[in-house]
Please model this.
Amino acid sequence: MDHALKVPPPWTLHGRGYILVLKKDQLLASDLPPWQQAKHSFFSFPMVMFVDYDGSPIGPYYELLYIPGRFKTHTGSYWTISKIYVSTETSVRHGRENWGIPKKLANFEVHYLKNEVQVQVFYDEKLVARFHLKNRGPTIWVTSSLLSKSLHSFCQVWDKKAYYFVPKARGKLGLCQILDCQGYGHDFLPFGPQNVHICLVAPVFEMVFPLSHIAALPKF
Model:
């Protein structure tokens, strides 16, 4: 596609993804921007995700992200993405402009085997994370429509502005076995299998990212 083309929200995306729910003691406040050092809300837990979008308005791309949790502000409680890498420059630009998501361009090596995936992510020529995960057991259909909007609302701070949005998601969800995983701390979170509370797989999903409401920075 034309890399200069602007694709405004809403976006509908399809793909598969893997979610590593981390133990809360893995969260390091020093790794967070100042506004994300606020108090955690209930229903808050840090997560690392690898996502393979095989369908999006800007074409397919890979994504590795870190969500440190859900935080309190004077307007409510919001999830936030503090670290994120993607495989295309077009995704970097649109993520920043549309939702204030601080995307960086990285190189991904992804190999699918039967019920398994092997992933390595390189940023600035350094290995930041690797995964070897295996699907385990049955999956069930889930949807964010069963949750209050407040439980899946996001706030991103970018270029001295706050971007508020509520993505929607539906798809299959099941358990995943960790054969290997490691975050190296090179511009990312250091973690290993001992830091993971549970690992989940979404072998098929659909997400809708709406138009953001852009406002002043949140207060605490």
